[in-house]
Records
---
Amino acid sequence: MIPDAWRSVVRRLEGSVTLDVAGFATQFTLPLEHLEEVYLPLLTVLDAEATNGRVLAGLAGVPGSGKSSVARLLQYVADEVWSPGRLVVVGMDGWHYPNAILEQRWTTAPGGERIPLRKRKGGPESFDVSALASALQLLRQAATVVRVPVYDRRLHEPVPDGLQITPAARIVLIEGNYLLSPSPPWDAVSGCLRPRLFLDVDLPAARERVIARHMRGGSSAEEAVARFEGNDRLNTEAVLATRSRADWLVSLTPSARLRSR
C-alpha cells in the first residue's frame, strides 16, 4: 500500500530530469506510469524491509538493461519522498579490477584459446569479488562510514573510495550483473542481498545500447559489434541464468510493472 503522502509528490516528479549516471549528465523522462507502477511500489517494498535495520538490496540485469539508470531514478524519487541520503546506490562496477591487472591476467575463451582477461572485461572473472563481499559485510553492520569504489565510464577505470556511505543510509541498493549468482565466489555476494530484484528488458534493445556505449568509448561500429559478440553476449547469457533467483521482477517496457516471484 503506497502512502497517500508519497502520491502527493508524484505530480511534481513527472517529466524530465537530468541526473549524473557513472560520471555522465543524463536526461531522463519520468512518466507517471513508471512512478506509480514501479518506483513508488519499490520504495514500499524496501521501506518495509528497513524496519529491521539497514537493507542491502540487489538489482541485477543483463548488460544494457538500464540498471544504473533505474537505480539512479529510484534514488532520485526516494530523495523527494523521504529525504536525501536514506537510500544510496552502489554500483558493482566499482569492483572491476583496474585495466593494468586485467592486461596481466589470462583466461580461456569459449573456443579454448588463452586471452588476456581485459578482453573479457565485464565478465564474472574481471571483478574483485572477495573485496565486494567484504564491503557488503561492512555495509550490513551500518555502524561506521564505509568508503567504496565507483566506476568512471569516462576513464574506464574504478576509482577507489569514490563514494562514502554513512550510518544514516537505511537502504543501500547494489546494482550489477552477477549479484544473484549462486556460483562461488559470487554466492558470498548474493547471500548478503535481500530483497533481490531483476530488471527485465527487451534483449535486442539491450544489445543495441551496449554497442552504442562501446562506440561512445571510441570503438568503430564493426569493433563494437565484435566486442558484444565476443564478450557481452556471454555475459548476458550468464546473467539471464540467474533471473529465477529474484524476489521481484521489474519491467518498464512495454508496460511498467513490479511483480513478486
---
Amino acid sequence: MGDPAMTIGPEELQKIGDYVRLHLAEWMGNVRSERDTGLMERSIRIEEELKAQRQIMETRFEAMDRRFESMDARFEAIQKQMDVRFTSMQWMMGLGFTLTAALMGVFNFF
C-alpha cells in the first residue's frame, strides 16, 4: 500500500478515544431514537394484526358454536322421530303377532 502519512502515538489515540467516548452518546442518540421509533411502530402494527386475528378467530368460533347447536337440535328432532317410529313399529309387530297367534289358534280348532 504505502507508508502512512502520519503516525499516531498512544497519547493521540487516548485523546481520540476520550473525544469519541464523550460525544458517542450524542451521535448515537439520533440513530437509536429512530431505530426505537421504527421498532415501536412495528410492534404496534404486529399487536394490531394479532388483535384482528383474534377477533376473526372469535367470530369463527362463535359461528362454529352456532352450527354445532343447530346440528344438535336436528339430531334431537331426528331422535324423537325415530323413537315415535320404533314405538309404533313395536306396537304394530305386537298386534301382528297377536293376531297371527289368535288366527292360528282359531284355525287349529276347526
---
Amino acid sequence: MSRTILLTNDDGVHSPAFKALWRHLLDLKIGDVVAVTPEHEMSAAGKSITLHKPLRVNKISSKIHGDKYGHVYLISGTPADAVVIAFKLILTEKPCITVSGINIGDNITLDNLFTSGTIAAAIQSLLNDVPAIAFSVEIPTSIDRRQLKVSNFNFHGRLAAEITRFMIENPLSKTQVLNINFPFNLGKNTGVELTSLAKIKFENYILERKDPRGAPYYWIGSSEINVSKSDEGTDLYALTVQKAISISPISLDVSTLILKNPESIYRREQLENDRKILLSLQKRIREILSSEAH
C-alpha cells in the first residue's frame, strides 16, 4: 500500500496554517508528503472543476518553517482541480490519504459543505477511492487574520498530523469524509465531540451600492444566527458554544433514504466498525490534549 500523503488546501501555499500541518506531517515521518495547492486563494470555490481554460502546473520550493523548505506544485485552478491534477499527472500511484487544510476559518454546517474548497478537495479525493480528511480552525473575530503566523497554528498542525496518522492506521469505509474543525484556543480541557452538520451558521443579506454612474451593484453579506439548545449535537454547537473540536463524518451517499431499503443502505457491520474507529479517534485526541504542553 502506498504511504504517500497528498496535502492540499484552498488558501494556497502561503497559508500559515497549511505550513504548520505540512511541517508536522514531515516531522512525524508517516509517509512521503506531496503538496499540491491552488496557486491563489480559492475559498468558497466548492467542488468546481476548471473546464473553460487550460490549467498550468508550477513546481516551486517553499519555506515551511525556520530553515526547512519543501517542494509544492501550484495549480492555476480550484482545490478540486489540484486533486485531479495530483492523481492523474503528478503522483505515480494513489496516495494512502488526502489531507486538506488546515483552513483558516471554520468549515461547519451544510452551507459550508457545499461551498468550502477545503471540504471539496477531500470529497474529490474520496470520489477517487482515496480516504480524506478536511481540517479547519475557527478564527475569533477579535483576531486580525493578516497577523497570523505558523506559530499560531503549531498545536493545531501537530494534532492534525497525529489524527492523520491514526486514520492511516485505522481507515474508515470508503464512503466517509472526515470534516474536523478546531477551536482557535486548544488546551487540556478542550472537548472533542462527534457531531452532525447543522443547517446554517449565517443568514445572507444583500447590500446595494451605486457606481459613479448611478448604476446599482450588490454585495452578498451575512450575519451569524443565534445558536440554541436545539443545535446540541451539531458541529455548530460544538465549535461555537462548547468551544470543542468537532469531528463530523460525512457520507457521500446523499440520495434520499425514502427511496431505499434501509437494510441495504446501512451495511451494519461497516457502520459499526466506522463508529468504533471514530470513538477511538475521539479518545486518542483527548489523550494528546491532556498530555501536550504547548
